[in-house]
Specification:
about 300 residues, alpha/beta, five-stranded mixed β-barrel, binds uridine 5'-triphosphate
């Protein structure tokens, strides 16, 4: 059983500056929820009970969103705002969150390594909050099912057009059984012309504790950072690793265009917002960009 999950959230979020000068990018809201809440909810729905959030020294604010706020709750109670009260109490219900520190942003692999003591010697889930997945069964839950069958690390992959594979990590596989691929190699941001496949790695992992030894051996790679993909490459020399082509709707909130598109899509997914949003989008699309219709 996988009980623990790591959420690396110590990156600089430079793509969103100056919005992220003070506010961690994981707290930027998509509709009415901070980005990170989507990953926490997904992990909880898959049976995770303990989440280790890797934070930078200035990001203590992140954990506060998941801690109870008795004063606010009392205020809502006395104003009869039951719906808001329930949604507040549901945040991270049944999950214990703790933070570990990554003193400086030396890369995703380094962030995961910082969680080693908190994870201990057991397999764990790892969720990057920049990727949001919506599915009947949570993506990390689909991956935990594969872990139960195979007993090895599981990576999440999605088929993308070849000309976009260079933005992701990609896998070389030997065989596949339905949507589970036996991985031979992983390549970070390949040249599309020579990419080993069109299967792109996205931000969900189930990892065996063997990853920590591999990370400890991994030096700085692309961008001078310790890359998780490089450690997975090392892990492959000692353990099998598989990839799951998951079933879910995928949204990127790690880039500004992705973030804007996700906000519109998830806004439209809400019945109480859809009619107004659709009506506005139709007027917007037929207006000149420098003369948008009023949003009031
Ligand atoms: P990203 O590279 O997408 O995030 O890392 P970033 O570095 O914050 O963003 P930009 O490129 O500057 O805009 C993927 C995930 O890994 C975490 C990030 O917080 C994000 O959730 N991360 C990255 C760390 O925790 N530590 C790091 O040193 C780097």
């Amino acid at each position: 059983m996988i009980r623990k999950a790591v959420i690396p959230a110590a990156g600089l979020g430079t793509r969103f500056l100056p919005a992220t000068k003070v506010l961690p990018k994981e707290l930027l809201p998509v509709v009415d929820r901070p980005v990170m809440e989507y990953a926490v909810t997904e992990a909880g729905a898959a049976g995770v009970t303990e989440i280790i959030v890797v934070v930078s020294p200035d990001k203590d604010m992140l954990l506060r969103h998941f801690a109870p706020n008795p004063e606010l709750e009392e205020g809502l109670e006395s104003r009869g705002k039951q719906r808001q009260l329930q949604s507040l109490r549901a945040i991270g219900a049944g999950i214990t969150l703790r933070s570990v520190l990554q003193e400086s942003p030396l890369g995703l692999g380094h962030a995961v390594l910082m969680a080693q003591d908190a994870v201990g010697d057991e397999p764990f889930a790892c969720l990057l909050p920049d990727d949001i997945f919506l599915a009947k069964q949570p993506v990390i839950g689909q991956m935990i099912d594969v872990y139960r069958e195979r007993g090895c690390s599981v990576l999440a992959v999605r088929r993308v057009p070849r000309d976009t594979i260079g933005r992701f990590g990609s896998i070389r596989f030997s065989t596949h059984e339905a949507s589970v691929y036996t991985i031979e190699d992983v390549v970070e941001k390949p040249d599309p012309a020579v990419a080993p496949s069109e299967l792109a790695l996205l931000g969900r992992y189930v990892l065996t504790p063997g990853i920590f030894a591999a990370l400890a051996r991994t030096g700085r790679g692309a961008g001078g950072e310790i890359q998780l993909t490089d450690a997975i490459k090392q892990l492959l020399s000692t353990e099998p690793v598989v990839a799951l082509e998951f079933e879910a709707d995928y949204f990127d909130v790690g880039t500004i265009p992705g973030f804007l598109k996700t906000s519109i899509a998830l806004g439209r997914a809400r019945e109480d917002l859809r009619v107004e949003l659709d009506e506005y989008l139709q007027r917007l699309i037929s207006s000149p960009p420098d003369r948008p219709p009023s949003s009031a």
